[in-house]
Amino acid sequence: MSRNKDPQSVLLLTVHALFMLSGALSGTFLNVYLWKSRQDYAMLGWFTIAQQIALGITFIAAGKWVKEYNKMNALRLGIGVSGLFYLCVLWAGNQAVEYIWPLGLLLGVSLGLFWLAFNVVYFEISEASNRDWFNGWLGLLGSVTGIIGPWAAGLIITMMHGERGYRFIFTVSMIIYAATVVLSFFLRKRPVQGGYDWLEGYRKLKESRMWRHAVGGLIFQGIREGVFSFLIFILVYVATDQEAKIGQFALITSLVSLVSYWVAGKWFKPHRRSVGMLVGAVLLLIVIVPLLWKVNYVTLLILGIGTSLFIPLFMLPAVSVSFDLMGANSDNVEKRVELVAVRELSLMTGRIAGLLIFIGVLAFRRDPSTITLLMLLLGASPVGAWMFMRKLFSWKQHAA
């Protein structure tokens, strides 16, 4: 049986899809829920920074556990802590904005545990020959959950008139997380290989030019992600004052993403990655330009559709080449847990850098034109990511 049809691969994709569905249901509206209590972009920025700090610390601290003990338990704990996070949000209610840092740290721990374990298992189950296929399916399933989750949640919140609707979808997310934990027990325990090397990341940066290029590219990739992860949906809510419009926005953009990831997964081959990534990075910047004229639902929808259409061109090569680098030789494969931690810490560094730029500028000016110009500045970071990672594409072709 080919590895891309291995039942364990399908099961891992299912666990990922359920985790993403729960996040799409509640995570899409979490920042809006906080925004309705306090209209403060900086507050949301600090909430996201708290998540990223906890994410980084968890990747470092949990790396030893994932490598030397049971990575599947780390995956399950990450899902369980996600459910605990929404339980805390339900408990805090409208006062959740008073607990931005502890809530952000708790969410970061849950995401750190899940994504560290998931990425390691993903690396073990996939290989260079089927990684674009696997990434395509991850994107497809992410798009499907992005279609169902926010659209349904937006309707529910609107029909249940606000607070009751939010509490309902947060409860549903908790139930889905619980079901995902149960399903994860059908994933086989992965073999343990060697001890955890705390200094592996430092050595790779010191000794390997390719890893320095990879880390640089990942940092630039993270700069855009940190701010755009919460800002777009907030802008849609500010422009429309309707949760249902956020659900509609997510429905349309995810439908586009569903098609674009399917096409990209079919089209992408290793020799096309460099050109595809550059074209995607440039187009991701261009679709922000309409906001210079006016920030309304139409221009935001242009941004959302354009991003969904072109982001597979950027993301598939960016993800594939960094994981290919991890599998370049037997030493890298043996150090896969440490190298996954290096990858995520690099992304975290970029996200925090982008968020600090965002918060720093808004400390002086908060008008809509400033926010748009900030989006253009931060939205150019994928081009910087390509400038670093293109070295990896040429290395890959040379090695082949």
From TrEMBL:
Compartments (UniProt record): Cell membrane
InterPro entries (UniProt xref): MFS, MFS_trans_sf, Sugar_transport-like
Membrane listed as a keyword: yes
Alphabetized UniProt keyword annotations: Membrane, Transmembrane, Transmembrane helix
Keyword Lipid metabolism: no
Superkingdom field: Bacteria
Membrane topology value: Multi-pass membrane protein
Residues that span the membrane, as ranges: 42-62, 74-93, 99-125, 137-160, 166-187, 214-240, 246-263, 275-293, 299-325, 345-364, 370-389
Record protein name field: MFS transporter
Organism annotation: Paenibacillus campinasensis
